[in-house]
């Protein structure tokens, strides 16, 4: 079986992403042949491509997709040809029109949820699920801080936090992105281009600071995030779009209010099959109920994956981005 897939011979800039023909064979035991209709784009893919996360070369790229099952391998009984499914995680290689995927990673797409929305929401939604529900203990009325509030994860986080009754304060860049974040359930939205983030967070929280800060930016925001936290607050570092944050000294956490620092990943929170299924199910349940509304800001042809990466890294995207095979 010949697939058209984005491949990398080496890690580097967006130009290393090349569309190639690849012989993928037929599905083996426990595997499924999936004709992919939409592929999600995530900053994780940028880390894989750039070398921030080393990979054995050559390699595919991409971490999630949705589509229709064409064939199943021996032993696969819970899925059948024609089923609409989505997946996230596993070995990079989701940027493709056809792919062989382990059946255990596939989640059925509910009626009423499009393939494009499924590809745009699954990985990001599962990230929001573990961040808000399991990485910390948030209660209704708590104040929390979220960077990149107009990004794919950020918009979903605002909606999910509103559903939980959490007062989520968003940070975005520019009035248009702030407007989008405000429309997605945030308690308040700050413009990092003009607002003093620390003083505004302290004012909004009555001087206490945020109980939790979700920081996906890294190096550029580390000091600000520390100052925004309340006594015994939790710093959740889950990305590094500006570069890795500095090493965290125990004495700094003590001096700034007995703070906690954690660097969680979706892989660890969904490594068990039951956790993976429960997290994905929670995402699709809230999409089906209209609580989560995926926002697809950009669509690119599969061959234009490099351009999509360039736009994502330069901050020229909003909401989720998908590639169309």
From TrEMBL:
SMART domains: PKS_ER (SM00829). InterPro entries: ADH-like_C, ADH-like_N, ER, GroES-like_sf, NAD(P)-bd_dom_sf, QOR-like. This is Quinone oxidoreductase. Gene3D superfamilies: Medium-chain alcohol dehydrogenases, catalytic domain (3.90.180.10), NAD(P)-binding Rossmann-like Domain (3.40.50.720). PANTHER family: QUINONE OXIDOREDUCTASE PIG3-RELATED, QUINONE OXIDOREDUCTASE-RELATED. Keywords: NADP, Oxidoreductase. The keyword Methyltransferase does not apply.
